[in-house]
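Bench notes, afternoon.
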Amino acid sequence: MSNSKLTFGVNLNNREPLLAPSYSLFDLLDLSEAVEEANFDSVWVGDSLFSKPRHEPMMLMAAISQRTERVKLGTACLVTATRNPLYLALEWATLDQMSNGRTILGACMGNPEEGVQREYKALGLDFKRRASLFEEGLDVLRQLWTDGKVTFDGEFFQYDDVSFFSGTEMGPLQPVQVPPPIWVVSNPRLVAGKKEEDRVTQVISKAARRIARYGDGWMTCCRARHPEEFREQHAQIVEAVKELGRDPGDYRMSYQVTMNIADSREAANESIGEYISQYYPELSKAMDLGEWGPVGTPDDIAEWIQTFADAGVDYFICRFGALDQFGQVERFAKEVLPRFTS
């Protein structure tokens, strides 16, 4: 079982050092090196202000960039809608230079849970208008990273020929990649029990156009029992990309999957249940844990990956729902990864 188009990265779980007494921030940095040595393509970190506190992703990726040489550095995902796009553009350009052009911006507006709504309120932002805020911010980022300057007249941001250049430098401060790839997040069915299928269909259609216009890829998660849903949204994104005159082959279709590998399904289920209830206490109560991803033996994991690859996923971001991160990475690298990359 192999597919040369499939690529795999590892989410480093930057909340875990705050949950596990025996797992420190420096262990996480060590894990980034282990992931690179195991021939994964990338490492990823998450983002949350105070809803689900974790180590700040930008500073963490800067540190990881100095501990690694090859792996790409991504966010899964960064809530860009809550950040000033000028500062974010400058920070990301610096990070892209520090890593010699290895960054991938996984960008999101935040999920609908109460904790994220409280973050918006604390920052003085309108949660109900987050989609428009998100899109405007992405537009500003792409202009700055592509053209070195931005002129923009939107509802939330207005700029007149702004650039990171005073006239005395050699040129505008820009990233190595022009621009760094942006993978736009869309999880239209994140909260269990949502029955409004007509509304969900509208959300998917709008998200597809957003991904096509502002992104270079799509990132999703949390519907691990429904490959048909991925296939449906994938088809709409491809159509939206074609309507803009771009090549769908230039886009990555990624899935962040939470998994647990063990000698039996029973052992894996017990382990991931304990982990997710700590890591995502609010969402774990609202969602069926089976939607996070596959649990079980290496054969079980590989079967799930192949199913979603057949549905259109070409990039898997693997998050391991276990306190033993090193053991999970090692086991996946030895018993699952070669089936798809050898």
